[in-house]
Design a protein that fits this description.
The protein is of the alpha/beta class. It has 2 domains: 66-279, Rossmann fold (3-Layer(aba) Sandwich); 298-407, 3-Layer(aba) Sandwich (Rossmann fold). It contains 13 helices and 19 strands. The strands form 4 sheets. A 7-stranded mixed sheet has the order 8-7-6-9-10-13-12, with helices on both faces. A 6-stranded mixed sheet has the order 16-15-14-17-18-19. Strands 2-3-4-11 form a 4-stranded antiparallel sheet, covered by helices on one side. Strand 17 (370-373), helix 13 and strand 18 (395-398) form a beta-alpha-beta unit.
Length: 410
């Protein structure tokens, strides 16, 4: 663990730093007491000259990051609804039927396995967070608690055999030993099986300025090009591509063992990335420059509102909000408190910035003039909740994507 000296997927030493967000705490290391001692780690990005992967320069121990976790998939209505769509899309691309089993790696509370269970599939989840695994099992989703990689895959195959469907949602970018992880996926996948990988798409991050998606859990920021390079190294080939609304816009690739006939979507993504210079170093240098400008714009908006006597609260103590709060040096001086629906986060304080997190109904009792939607990727859902549950008619500030936007009434 610590600073990297070579690329996380191709091993080359030709990596070039381009964006330093300063030392920050771990995004999900929420505090019981604002005076607790905190650890801060470097948060900066580099670009690989050979495979063009954008990646974090520093690795924090996975045990420290993931053994206890505070994100629960079921907390999000958007994620719950998407789980049904995801099931239909994945099943439509497999010919295996229900004869084998479905394996989800980093299955969290089991939300995305539930549609498979309801439709008669045998399933198994794997997740490293003990507290979340207990919740999954309580939900009726069989789940094993460990970090996934080649060794874990060998144990799984001995016990369960090969899986005909494997999916890994929003986990590959979190993995310290990326190659070991993909090796494990390939080892578990049956000859005719289908693998689906969902990951926050670096093209979206670049073009819509999602700098708040940069935090210590996200070690890699994949374009199609860099992801394809990694998978091909393990004889896994992509045959189709879809999209997901999660994380502000994610890529879902569908792949199989060995060369397969590609659908038109695959070449479309290759050409689109080339035409839009998504894998160019200059594009990412520009991303860093625009992120600093964005910080100035957001701070100006907030400071002007506060000078006018407005009361501002935040909504959504997501991991991405931690990067935004720390990068912009926002604290309880600007944001009175933060509302969050996740009971695991309530009555704690944000990492580094020490803003109190409370239940939404408690926060709305403060009668804010403006709500800063920190979990902006769920903005529609949050605004609907504000209107319907709290009859809120005040203003909202949506910091991203692109330039910050302010609505005086919703």
């Amino acid at each position: 663990m610590g600073n990297i000296t070579s690329c996380r997927i191709c091993g080359n030493k030709n990596i070039r730093p381009f964006f330093d967000l300063g030392k920050q705490p771990l995004a999900n290391s929420l505090l019981k007491d604002p005076d607790e001692k905190e650890d801060f780690y470097p948060l900066s990005l580099s670009w690989c000259q050979d495979c063009n992967l954008v990646q974090l320069d520093y690795t924090v121990s996975p045990e420290k990051l993931f053994s206890k976790y505070v994100w629960m998939t079921a907390t999000s209505e958007t994620a719950r609804k998407f789980s049904e769509t995801f099931y239909e899309e994945l099943v439509s691309r497999t010919e295996a039927g229900k004869k084998g089993y479905v394996l989800e790696v980093a299955s969290n509370d089991g939300t995305f396995l539930l549609p498979f269970i309801r439709n008669g599939y045998e399933v198994l989840g794997v997740d490293p967070a003990k507290n979340i695994v207990k919740m999954a099992e309580k939900n009726g989703v069989p789940t094993k608690c460990y970090f996934f990689g080649r060794r874990a895959a060998e144990n799984l195959v001995k016990e369960k055999g090969l899986a005909d469907i494997i999916f890994a949602r929003n986990v590959l970018p979190h993995v310290a030993n990326t190659r070991d992880f993909v090796d494990g996926l390939q080892f578990c996948l049956s000859e005719e099986g289908v693998l689906a990988i969902e990951a926050h798409y670096a093209k979206k991050i670049l073009e819509e300025l999602h700098y708040d998606s940069i935090y210590h859990e996200h070690l890699c920021y994949f374009t199609f090009k860099s992801l394809e390079k990694l998978l091909n190294d393990f004889n896994i080939f992509i045959f189709d591509i879809g999209t997901s609304p999660i994380s502000g816009g994610s890529l879902i690739i569908y792949a199989k063992n060995g060369k397969v006939k590609e659908r038109s979507s695959v070449q479309f993504y290759r050409e689109q990335e080339k035409n839009n210079k998504i894998n160019d170093f200059a594009s990412w240098q520009d991303f860093a420059r625009k992120s600093f400008l964005h910080r100035e714009k957001l701070l100006n908006i907030l400071n002007d509102l506060i000078k006018e006597g407005n009361k501002i609260i935040g909504y959504g103590a997501s991991a991405r909000s931690s990067t935004l709060l720390n990068f912009c040096a926002l604290s309880s001086k600007q944001i009175l408190m933060i509302a969050d629906q996740n009971p695991l986060k309530q009555n704690l304080f944000t990492a580094g910035t020490h803003v109190k997190i409370k239940r939404p109904d408690e926060v709305m009792e403060e009668k804010p003039d403006y709500v800063l939607i920190l979990a902006w990727n769920f903005a529609e859902e949050i605004i609907r909740n504000l209107r319907e549950k709290f009859n809120y008619k005040g203003g909202v500030i949506i910091p991203l994507p692109d330039n910050p936007k302010i609505k005086k009434e919703i």
